[in-house]
Amino acid sequence: MTKIVFTSCMDAERVPNQPVWNQIRDEAPDVLMLLGDQIYMDWGDLGGPEWRKLIAREPVEGLRAFATEMHRRYALQWAVPGFQALICGFGGRADPSRLLVTWDDHDYAWNNSLGVDGDDDHCVPQPVKQVARRLFGQFLEQLRGADQDASYPALPETWNAPLEDENTSHLFWHGALHGAGGPECLLLDTRWHRQLRAAGASILGTQQRAALRAAVSRAGAGLLVVVAGTPMNHSYQFSQQAWRDPHGFTYAEYDEALASAQRPVLFLGGDVHRNVWSGRLRQTNGTPSRVVQILSSGAAIGRIGPKRFAPSYGVVTLPATWATAGEVTVQLRAMRRADGWKDDPAMGAPLPFNNSNWAETLHGEAESKVDAAADTAVLTVLCARPRASSHRLHEGHAVVKVSNGIEGLDAVYKNAPLDGDSYAETLELQVEPGTVDSTVRLQFRGNAHDGNNREAELHTLIGGAFERARVGNKRSVVLFIHGFGKSFEASLAQAYGLRQAFPECEPILYSWEAGRAGGVLAALTGVGAARHSAKVGVHGLSAVLKAFGGAQAHGMSKVIVARSAGSLALSEALWSQGASFIDEINRVQRVVLSAPLLKWSEYQRRNSFAGLKTQVVVTRNRNDQTLKFADWIDGFGPMLGLEEGFAGASPGQICLDFTDSPRVGRLHDYLFLKINPAQSEINHRLMTDAVFDPLQAVGGHLLVPEKAGVFHVQ
User: What class, spelled out in words, does domain 2-353 have in CATH?
Assistant: First the structure.
């Protein structure tokens, strides 16, 4: 028997505490595989395109900065105690058949990086490739031979010297796992030779491609293990990582390997920040192949936006009879917040094989559902979307239960706005604690059938949230109006993310149809759809704002946060019906327009939010890539979240500029993420304080004043 543990993706910069390594050590594997993204070079002040521009502009100093940063991040990962203890205690670490390590895009250069030099932002210049290869080699040498508690070596003096040769055979390994007689395995490098996507493009290069083709086509040779950092087949929303994108491009090696396979092939990969059981991969013509794919990733990844990534790894056990017949057993494990490490229930059955194929139809050939998206506390939700006819509730029943996490709730509500005179539906959501399959209970807290007396129900539900926050000793209650392109499930995940990022505040989610995400074509119509929904939903949101402002606060702060396109919905309600609830809204301590997708000219023309006595805070990042894209789609002047000329339009209105705050870069989300100390503290004060005093923050060296009403975050 050969026991393999594999995982990928670790970021000691953001996640210095990495419990996954102690857990893996307890597994006592025969073979350990680290499948890429040991560091994240493009997280921080400089993303991939910025690194490329810096190096092009300042070839010597820019490359030195890149090398210094890459070396620093490798040293940080080595210094993680659990990681170092695992590696140094692993008896076969000097043996490439027992410790297999490859790189992927983030430790090769930057996101979606290519192995060619060229004009495309994803292409990696030759000097950068040389630095990456030397420093990856230094890291691998440290893993294979350093003593525990040994310091990480200094940046090599030859860090920028040309490579002695272009032979990349050491990036590829083909042999027997766990020594002579073990299962046959290929470890592939999918970065150095990766070409721009075009007809006939290669991801592996000549040598690796020939070796893979020869290995998979050996008829009747038994089980073959193929390992790489990049998945063969996976559906990404924004990235271009997989060998095959199910919605578009396919590298030449994908179909070639699948069509050539004459034996059972087990492909192990990473990258996707979760565990995935893909089952038998299908060729582009739709026919099933002999290649089974399993991915495990997210060993130590911090939150990205509202998304939290559970520490994960995979365990694969191969029989000694791998050359003839037997069963492969697989456990995909993730660390759930409520109840520790859990196995993915999708992987309950072994995978039988013979010497030429998988022996029978395999089970559950779909992505696994191990997630940790939600906590188990009650979440108050006001849903301004029409309920699907399949979830019309019978008299006396006001509960929907689903057992595959909050993802299953997308079926309850349609992606459309409510009728203009409708009120938001009053809901309470709870993930039942201690359940392996994340059972979710959606409770309708009102008349769930015909919507009578909905305005009174809003007051009752919101009042209940304030009382729950009081009992929980929270400092604030936040009415959260989410941004662009969120399904019902995605809006829920963001609200849970708000509560995790700021535990002292209690969120109330206003879930509305804010346009559709999913690429350029969706965005072209999505911004207009969000504007339409904002106008249609004026009546319903106005009732929510009135109820929220009028609720008994019990000494807690009331904060309204409108994220991105949420500023459209809030502004429409305030501009069209604000006079009808001005007294209630003025009882709110603060309105925060977070990276607002709102035209600056429109904000000026309507005299901003004149008439409000409550404080209005606008946050901006002039490099915000998302708003720049939305601005390009929408045209006709800049967004409020980008505008450089903003000054407090009226007393009590201020702008917080995050543009030059370290590591914010081009990010759209600098609210949920903890990026640097000043940014984190400012957001914490915005979400929780009874009074947000920018001058006090200036005195605490968190803000720098620019002009009236405008402050830069340190």
Answer: alpha beta
* Residue 622 C-alpha from the chain's centroid: 23
Backbone angles phi, psi at 656, to 5 degrees: -110, 115
What pLDDT does residue 575 have?
Answer: 87
pLDDT at 75: 97
pLDDT at 307: 67
Positions in the chain whose pLDDT score sits under 50: 366-373, 395-396, 435-437, 518-522
Residue recorded with tokens 């004009």: 119
Please state, in angstroms and as integers, the Cα–Cα distance from residue 466 to each residue in 45, 519, 550, following that order: 39, 38, 11
pLDDT at 560: 98
Number of H helices, E strands in the chain: 18, 25
pLDDT of residue 25: 96
Decide: pTM greater than 0.85: no
Secondary structure of residue 570 in the 3-state scheme: helix
State the SS3 of 114-151: ECCCCCCCCECCHHHHHHHHHHHHHHHHHHHHCCCCCC
Q: Residue 498: which of 476, 524, 467, 518 has the closest Cα?
A: 476
pLDDT of 363 reads 54
Read off φ and ψ for residue 116, nearest 5 degrees. Answer: -120, 155
- State the pLDDT at residue 155: 95
Between CA 706 and CA 655 the distance in angstroms is: 10
- As to burial, measured by CB atoms within 10 angstroms (0-12 exposed, 13-18 middle, 19+ buried), residue 65 is middle
- Which residues on neighbouring strands pair with residue 225, listed in sequence order? 185, 266
How do the domains of the chain map onto residue ranges?
A: 2-353, 458-713
Q: What is the DSSP string of 339-399?
A: TEEEE-TT--S-EEE-SSSBSSPPS--S---------SS-EEEEEESPBPGGGPPPTT--E
Q: d(Cα 341, Cα 204) in Å, to the nearest integer?
A: 35
Q: What pairs with residue 618 in β-bridges? A: 593, 655
Question: pLDDT per residue over 595-650, tens digit each?
Answer: 998 888 778 776 667 678 899 999 999 888 778 877 776 666 678 888 766 655 56
Whether domain 458-713 has CATH 3.30.450:
no
Rounded CA-CA distance 619/670 in Å is: 9
